[in-house]
């Protein structure tokens, strides 16, 4: 009698397992819908996302010829840092769209996040002879800032920052459950 009960229980267990295995194989794949509205709001609220930091040094000098005695000379090395990234305040209203397990992202253009590139505490004057006016110093400062800005926004730096942005956003959205992350 005990043998019959054990055989009956084993038969029922095998039938139940077979049913679930068979049902699992023949069921249609389910579409994955991910609700990320709160995460999208959080990402946009962070505002500035930095993806590349460029430390720079710029040499600027000027010589003002004088007829009497010697020429006026002024030379400085300006040091600074440009932070490249995106400001999500610049993002379009529909910067992200989802479909099942795919997300499409339209990031704003990479730009310098802080226009104060030059670090005045790291700027060094190593030649100042003669009469150097504040206007001359300001002109050299602006020239150094313009040159640093131009170098920071080189094709290589913009490309590296864009690639870093795509990598970081891909990791972020995959961790939210998306399998495919596309950038436009």
What does this protein structure show overall?
There is one protein chain. By secondary structure, the protein is an alpha+beta fold. The protein has one domain. It has four helices and seven strands. It has helices at residues 2-26, 37-46, 134-152, 155-175, and strands at 48-64, 72-87, 96-99, 102-105, 111-112, 124-129, 180-183. The strands form two sheets. Strands 1, 2, 5 and 6 form a four-stranded antiparallel sheet that branches. It is rod-shaped, with a radius of gyration of 31 Å.
Structure summarized in a few sentences:
It contains four helices and seven strands.
Number of domains: 1
Class from helix and strand fractions: alpha+beta
Mean pLDDT: 79
User: How would you classify the quaternary structure?
Assistant: single chain
Give the terminus-to-terminus CA distance: 71 Å
Helix tally?
A: 4
- Give helix and strand order, one letter per element, not per position: HHEEEEEEHHE
> Helical percent range?
40-55%
Instruction: Provide the gyration radius in Å.
Output: 31 Å
- State the major sheet: 4 strands, antiparallel
Q: Any low-confidence stretches, pLDDT <50, length ≥5?
A: 26-34
Q: So what's the overall shape?
A: rod-shaped
Strand content: 25-35%
- How many E strands? 7
């Amino acid at each position: 009698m005990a043998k019959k009960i054990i055989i009956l229980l084993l038969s029922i267990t095998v039938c139940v397992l077979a049913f679930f295995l068979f049902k699992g194989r023949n069921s249609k794949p389910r579409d994955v819908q991910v609700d990320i509205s709160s995460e999208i709001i959080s990402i946009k609220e962070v505002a500035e996302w930095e993806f590349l930091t460029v430390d720079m040094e710029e040499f600027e000098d000027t010589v003002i010829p004088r007829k009497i005695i010697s020429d006026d000379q002024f030379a400085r090395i300006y040091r600074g840092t440009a932070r490249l990234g995106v400001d999500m305040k610049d993002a379009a209203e529909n910067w992200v769209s989802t479909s099942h397990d795919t997300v499409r992202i339209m990031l704003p253009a990479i730009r310098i996040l802080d226009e104060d590139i030059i670090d005045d505490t790291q700027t060094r004057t190593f030649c100042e002879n003669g009469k150097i006016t504040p206007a001359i110093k300001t002109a050299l400062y602006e020239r150094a800032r313009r040159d640093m800005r131009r170098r920071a926004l080189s094709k290589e730096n913009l490309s590296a920052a864009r690639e870093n942005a795509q990598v970081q956003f891909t990791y972020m959205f995959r961790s939210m459950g998306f399998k495919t992350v596309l950038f436009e």
